[in-house]
Every structure is written in structure tokens, then in C-alpha cells.
Amino acid sequence: MSLRPSRILRTLAVAAAVAIPSAAFSAFAQKPYQTQKGTEILWDTWGVPHVYAKSVPDMFYCFGWAQAEAHGDLLLHVMGGSRGRGAEYFGPGIADNNLKTDRWIWTNEVPKRAAVWLAAQTPEFRSYLEAFAAGINGYAAKHPEALSPEVKQVLPITALNVIEHEQHFYNFEFTANKNLMSSPRSTETAELTTPVAPGLKNTQLDSEDGSNGWAIGPSHTTDGHAMMLLNPHLAWGGEQSYFEVQLTAPGINLYGATQIGVPSLRFVMSGTHAITNTVNVNNGHLLYKIKEAPGGYLFDGKVLPYEKASYPIRILQQDGSYKSETIEVLKTVHGPIIRRDEGVPIAVYIAGLDKPFLLEQVYKMSIAKNFAEYEAQEKRLNIPMYNILYADKAGHIEYLFNAPVPRRSEGDYAMWSRPVDGSTSKLLPTGSLTYEELPKVIDPASGYVQNSNQPPWDAAWPTMIDPKKYAPYISPEWPYFRSDRSLRMLSEDQKMSFDMLLQKKLSTRAEAADRLLPDLLAAVDQYGTPKAKQAAAVLKAWDRQAESTSTGTILFWNWATKFGMPSAAPSSVKNFTVSYQLDKPLTTPSGIKDPKAAAAMLDEAARETEQNFGSLDKPWGSFLRVQINNQSDGVTSVPRGTALNGVDLPGNGGPGAIGIFRVVTPGPRVDGTSTPVHGDGFTMAVEYSNPIKAKVLVSYGDCSQPGCAHHTDQLPLFEHKQWRDVWRTRAEVEKNVEKRESF
After folding, report:
1. Which helix (H) or strand (E) holds 598?
2. Could you tell me the CATH number of the domain that includes residue 363?
3. pTM (2 d.p.)
4. pLDDT tens digits, residue range 330-365?
């Protein structure tokens, strides 16, 4: 990246500031921000803020203000943590999570790089970042009583802090995260980073970060209008929480959601188009085994010295004192050493660290006026990962496997999912692939594009993306029942209406049950024990769904985990008779290879289910209780499993691993019940008719501040599988105003 001299000076100045002690952070305090008269926020009866700004900077200011008002404690927690000072502000955290995050941030020198990124911003967009930060500070200054004492030490927020949080969240949590610092058993099995089938552990599912996304073209809709489903799945709490908002300014009208602390909408609709994301199967980080030698490490036959840096951090103790720790960083040509596997140093290369314009790109994608403008922004590839799906009023749809994929001279996805030899330059990436080299499909014959976190090849099935036309390391080939369920629902009707989209989104049917249950029942009939036959009777009567009244869901989930659901792990398909075929996602893999073993698995699953839940046919909704779990990353409002405001409702939806499209991940089992910790959070459906139709739901509510009336008010809608209307026009909002703030 080339910087003008003036920007280099700014870079040095800001970089120096990151080393200033905490008490001196007030030096970053911004001048009071003055909005233009007439700027206001209208809060509707669901607690959603609608910003009406007289200028774009005022819009960003109000966005920061609204985030602070709805999520102030959480917002400042995550912003403080992204500085690499979470342990200093809040203590080491649950399971030392704050401390681990601090170590990860400083090992990767996020504050130093964030200063460089901030200096690289255009003056225009930097002014927007400064306005967003000023909005947070403005709310805190006017309403200090609304914030908890412990978070006030994080203030003031600056544009630098916004960049730090962006970089931490996207580059160092999603593209690569602190779990990489933990050593696996050996370097031979290390880092098979492709997703594995989530399993039943202590009768709970491993959290599967991801999403569903649909973009449906006019040829596949009953009314001839493009439609989109925006359906991200992330944690129900903490920094991954979604915040629903409307942002308007002259020439701009955006509606959607983003994570707390982020000033651009990743999930968004405008009057012309809609955009959604899903987590993609992408090697965004590469690991290297370093060969040490006296004086440094071997690289291309020479000994290179480590580049060294050290960063002191402080750790708050329970008695109010502090412990000190120094993070010693050793850097190679690949990146920093993050751990040692059996004594072998492991360095990490993280893609996209030379691309500082993620927030600007996301914003400009959202305000594009047509597909050409949108695609011009996409081509910048400053977003470090995610599939991106698009639909517009003109009828265009697109799927893009988005990432600055590291360009390599050899190897496939499996090879690069483990540490490779770091002593040779031939395995060092040389830049990244271009937009033209990435898997994508625009306006396919199928009439739709979709993704549910599977590899890109069947995004528009039966219109296929041919893997052979792309670099072999881009993405693997593997099956996943949730994506198969997505394709089935999209393809089973020649055309789809908006009402059909709304209904299909809420489906809790388990694709794996339709694929495997008949064979399992036949296997038990031939080989089953009395206990297995008792369990089979429950499964035969089961509706194959995860509705609150469904019986058999828990039992099948337990058995399916033992059987192995299709995923990236090669062993996950070992029990199927018919192997996976890329162009046959609705019929492969299928069949039970060893019926006797499958019957024995059901016997085991039945005994465990009875032991853990008291019966084989416990209704799913008596296990899954819809409450709010607001505990994440050291931010603890209530004990896990505690119902807020008296809300305790039977849940529906379930594990994506067994092919349920309405993903709800149960948390730890407490007294035979569980509360959602992950899954359908923000969900929106859009049809570009005239007028535009749009429905939405934020399952856990649009605020998290203590005492907020809108923290649980959408849970009954979630329980009853209902949507809310999107109030997008000023007239609609005015009819549903709860509070008005003028600036």
C-alpha cells in the first residue's frame, strides 16, 4: 500500500499514540460534534432507531449515538477489548477470555496496524468514522447515568478505536482467531481448519458460526420481482449481537443490521438492492512450521533474524490491584509466532492485512445505485472473508465467494489446512487472487443463488460452478445437510412467492431425518435391541421437525451425532452407503453402510437420552426454552439460563448439523433444559415489488442495556414463528413512534 507523505506523518503520529498509558487516552478526545438542525432519531415501538440526518456525517453520528443508547455497556466492553485492554479494564474474564484476547491482539499488533489503516482512509470516510465515534461519546456525555461505572473508563471512543474493533472482529476473530494460539496434539494433525460436523457434547451442540442466504431472481418468483433472505447465525449475545437500524440522509435510505461497534451495515436493503453475507469455507489464514537456527530461523537456506517487539499489558485483579505481563512478539516473513507445537514454532500468515478499506467498501456497496456500481466496490476485495449475496430491483442476483484469497504456487485446500514448511519461499503467498479468479455466479439459469456455509460450487444448483476452473486451494468439496435443505426448499417449487419465502425460512424440518430415518428403522427392525426398538417407535411417530411439540428430535439428534453428519471431515461420511457427489446434493450422501452398527448406535443414544432427559420422547420445547442468555466474553448481566423479565417460552428450531434451516443452537443443559446461545438472530426478507415488501425479526431484541423494555419483546414472535413488518417509510415510522430525539 502506498501512502502520501502527509498520510505517513499522520500514521507515525497515531502509531505513537497507541503506546500512551491508559490515563492519557483522553488526549484523543474529539471536539464536540455539532449536528445540523433537524437531525433526529425516531425510536419505534420495537426499540428500533430510525435516523433522519441532514448530512452523511450526521447520519454516522446518530448511528454511534443509537448504538450507545441501546447497547452502551456491551458496546464499550467490546471496544475496550478490541484495544487489547480488556483484561486491564474488566479483569481476565470467564476462562481468561479477556486476557487471551489481549494476548492475541498484541501478538498480531492490531493497535499499531489500526493506526496505519486509519491514516490510509480518505478524508471523507475518516470524517464519517470520527462522527460515529463522536456519537458514542456524545451519548455518554449526556447520559452518564445510563452506563455502568466499569465501562466509562473506556471513554472517549475515537476513530482509531473503531478501526481497531473492525480489524479485531473481522481479521482476527473471523478470518483467524485466538484459538490458533492453542497447540493441537501434533503438527501432523494440527489445524484441519475446515468445519467438522457439530456434535452432541453433554447433550448440547457445538456452536456453528454461519448463516443462510438466498437471492431469488424474477424468473423464479410468482410476481416477477427479485427477493432476498438475510439470515445470519451468530451468538445470541456479546460482540456478535446484531443491531437493527434505519439510516437516512439526503439520497440515502438504508435498513438492516450490523454487529455492535461496527459503523457499516453488512446486512442491508436500500430502495434499489439488498445484500447479505454467510461465513465461507476459506483458508484466510495459513500456518507455517518454522525451522529455528542459531540467530533466528531458516528461510531459503539462509538464517534470518526474528523481528522482535514487546508490549506490556495490565491485568485487573479481584482486589483492584493489577498484575503486569509483557507480550513478546517474534515475527517471521510469514507473520508472528503464535505458538509452539511439540517445540516447533508456528507462524501465522493472515490474508487481507494490506487492505484497510473494509468499512468504506461495505458502506459504498450499500449506497450503490445499480449493479455496476455495486460490483465495482466488490472488486476491491477489502472484506477479508464471507460469501456475499446480492439482489436488486432491476432483477439481478449474484453470489460471490468473497475473500482476498492468498495466491499460492501449489497445494490443495487440505494441504493448506495444516501447518506447512516455512523454510522455503515457494510456499509463501504472492499477493491475492482477483475478483475474476473467485467463484461467482450472476443471474444463473436456476433463477436463484444461495449459501448455507457450504463450499461455493452448488450456489445456484442445478447451475453448477465448476471447481476445476479455480485454484484447488480456494475451497474444498464436501456435503452439508443444512445447505441441502436450503436447495431442496428453493428448487421444489417452479416459482416462489414472498409468502412462501417467509414460510420456508421458518422450516424446522431435518433433512438428515428424511435422508436416513427409513434406513435406520429398517436396520433396527432387523438388528435392534429391545431398547433400540423402543427408540425406533418414537422416531417412527416423530414429525421429523424441531417444533416445540416435536417428540423424537432430541433422540434423533443424539443418534445422528454418533452416526456422523456430512461435513469437511473425511470420516464424517464413512457410515454412508452412497458417497457424496457434488452435483447431486439432494440425494448424496445417503444410505446406511452398516445397519447393525447403526442400530447399536440408536441403542446407545436411547440410553443416553433417557439418562439425560428422563424419557425418549421429551418434547423439544420442554428442553429448548426461549430465554435470553446475555453472557458472553466477560459481559455478564444474568446467570446463564436465567429468564429475563419473566420470559420463559418453549423453543423451536434446532441444529443445522442435522439439516435444520431454522438454526437454533442450545446452550449448556441445566436441569434438563437449555436456552439458545446461537442461531437465528437477525432475519430479514425483502421483495422488490412496488411498494417494497419487507419483514424482519431480531430474536433477542434490539437492545441489551439493563432495564431496556425491548430486550425480550420479540421472543414471543420467535416462539410463534411470526415476523414483524419493516417500517421503512417516514409515514410508517411516524405511526409507530415510541420516542423522539432531536439534535
Report:
1. helix 595-613
2. 3.60.20.10
3. 0.92
4. 999 999 999 999 999 999 999 999 999 999 999 999
